Amino acid sequence: MRYKGIIFDLDGVICSTDEYHYLAWKALADRLGIPFDRERNNLLRGVSRMASLEVILEKSCTTYSDEDKAAFAEEKNATYRQLLGRMSPKDLPDDVQNTLKALRTSDIKLAIGSSSKNTPFILERIGLESFFDAVADGNCITHSKPHPEVFLKAAGMISLSPQECLVVEDAHAGVEAAIAGGFDCAAIGDARDDGRAKWHLEKFSDLLHIR
Ligand code: BG6
Ligand code: MG
User: Fold this and answer.
1) Which of 48, 140, 169 most suits a substitution to test ligand 1, by most atoms within 8 Å of the C-beta?
2) What is the DSSP letter of 182?
3) Is 11 a catalytic residue?
4) How does pLDDT run across 117-162, given as a tens digit for each residue?
5) What predicted TM-score, i.e. pTM, was given to this entire model?
6) Which domains, ranges and CATH numbers included, belong to the chain?
């Protein structure tokens, strides 16, 4: 493979926590009487918690205070953490597990670049807490995707330049972040057909065919 490092987004790439984000936001939106569906949820991929809440509240007729918003974000996160608490290493798809194992036998550095503050908890739940060479996440950045900060941090942690790394993303905001940072991007899932990506993955193991 031409890349010396791979930086993976977490939610929706390594594991299906994107579905749990949806369920937790949906519970909040239903309680507040705000229309919200899976299509709208796609706008939240890669986007920070507070920015996601703002997107949801755009469809509300009520204006909420900053205190209300902080409480809503906390409520969503509590629901989300409850769902995450049920996860186990069985929630790591076989295709992902086998591909990560195969990549680990090479000397390619592997890192996480996620906007999520729950990254350490998720990695622990799925048994990958000590798998990656570096983890850059929502706890160590000031700008969320589509800003490239989290990917630049991850590349710095594995001592590689953006040009030496590939970013794997399922979010359009994440593809944008990768390109803005000077990385090549492999797009999967919701972002698979994003024209800005260099590679378009039907499944995670397609990564192994990139030369
Ligand atoms: C990203 C998700 O990985 O993390 C977004 O794609 C989410 O949907 C963001 O809003 C922040 O997550 P958390 O866990 O910090 O609320
Ligand atoms: Mg994602």
Assistant:
1) 48
2) T
3) yes
4) 999 999 999 999 999 999 999 999 999 999 999 999 999 999 999 9
5) 0.96
6) 5-16+90-209 (3.40.50.1000), 18-84 (1.10.150.240)
